[in-house]
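A note on notation is needed here, since sequence and fold are reported together in a single record. The reader may check this reading against the record printed directly beneath this paragraph.
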Amino acid sequence: MITTLRTITAAGAAALALVGGAALTGSAATADDGAHRMPARPTERALVSSCTGGTSVAMFSRSMDFQSVTAGATVDVEGSQWQVRGPKKGSDAVLVTLTSMASSGGAGELTSVAFYKDGVGTSEGTKYYTYNGILDEASVSFCTRIPKGQHTLTLKVIDGGGGAATLYFPTVTYQRFS
């Protein structure tokens, strides 16, 4: 068999990847038999829970011109409320995304968004949306599961105080998976 430069390069890259992977994930622990094992990696919590409940069943979005949020206030994002009936059996996943051009009221001010299902905040909590008085593109996503029955889904925007936050052309998109 003739060894080519491609074979040598591939073998060298694989060896470097193995060595580099060990260096990046931590130091090796030695077992009693002298074999090297990597320590267990800590589990990481995703910012958005898995929304891959299956195939996409429905998707719709609503857009508005703008919404101003008074300093220090918490208000529903206009057009974000959705009345949805859950499946007859099991549960469906719903991914909701809010995008807009946004500006917090002033320097050092934080605007955040929370997602509510049936009047209760979801486990993903409140998420950063925009900061300072600079107009910028902002986006945030949340995911929830909806079981059997009627449900109300809503996004709330929270102004950090100081001055009014403004959302220009906010668009709320709901995508449902079975």
